[in-house]
Design goal:
There is one protein chain. With 83 residues, this protein is α+β, with helices and mostly antiparallel strands. The chain is built from 2 helices and 4 strands, in the order βαββαβ. Strand 2 and strand 3 form a beta hairpin. The longest helix has 12 residues.
Amino acid sequence: MTYQHRFHVEDVTCEHCDARVRNALLALPGAQNVELVRTPQDEAAVLFTASEVLVPEQIETAITQQSVGTTHHYRVRWDAPMA
């Protein structure tokens, strides 16, 4: 079984940011795939697929920790669930 998470990450401005976010997600348990597209609003639209159940806090913590030591402040903004 796979689990998909859709969200945006704020303050993603360059390829280094893309890599930090992608690597943080791929290090999580059961990580399978990360689709990341940077938007003109300096954020990334993300579709993350994992084979294990992950709570939102795990994803948020992994990403925000990537801001440490940088000039960025990554923050997850969850997309509204699709009806």
